[in-house]
Amino acid sequence: MARNDVRHALTQAGRATDRDAPEFAYWIRIATGHYFEAESALREWRSMPDIQAFIATIPEDGRQALKVTSGAIQKMGKGALEHSRNRTLHYPYPTSKYPTDHELSAALDTLGKEEVLVVSGGDGLDRLHFADHLALALALAEYDRSNLRAQGKIVGTGAWGFVKFATRAWKAYGDARGLELGLPASGD
User: Fold this and answer.
1) Residue 118's beta-bridge partner residues?
2) Which of 44, 54, 56, 164 could be joined to 65 by an S-S link, Cβ 3.0–4.6 Å?
3) pTM, whole model, 2 decimals?
4) Percentages helix, strand, coil for the chain, rounded to the nearest 5?
5) Residue 56: other Cβ atoms inside 10 A
6) Domain boundaries in the chain?
7) What DSSP state is assigned to residue 184?
8) Are 141 and 83 in contact (CB under 8 A)?
9) 188: pLDDT confidence band, cut at 50, 70 and 90?
10) In the structure, what pLDDT confidence band is assigned to residue 6 with cuts at 50, 70 and 90?
11) Which residues, 6 or more positions from 50, have their beta carbon under 8 angstroms from its beta carbon?
12) Residue 22 · residue 130 · CB < 8 Å
């Protein structure tokens, strides 16, 4: 489940980049949120002896992908991805348990002098691009602004590492049980 979510969000972010679409920021935030949740769940599952024994059966490239995905979380530093996830999936309001109303005010002050851009979707549904900038500013508040590009690469590498690990784990599970997994369906 998590593999599919992370993979889909990363794929959509890549497509948005190719089209220079304003949705890129959205898909990156979603990918980061799913990746954080997936890695948190995986960390808990890995504490179980049966899961540890299963992981030992996964081919080396899958175990290396596990190291990549876990290492990326550590490289990002405590709290950065959790903060991003919380700010992506919880909209600011004054009584929130997160200090989002203060953060919203600070982000609006920072972005207040930028051009307000509305992107026409051609279907009568416009995208408020400035809102994407605001959402990204809230999500990235715990990142090191001077090192944002490098941190983005760390998160991307870790998220794709998670996808690769989960894919290899699924294949190892199927192989151990003699399951025929077949070829991917078209479009996958």
Assistant:
1) 128
2) 164
3) 0.81
4) 70, 0, 30
5) 9
6) 2-112+130-170
7) P
8) yes
9) very low
10) very high
11) none
12) no
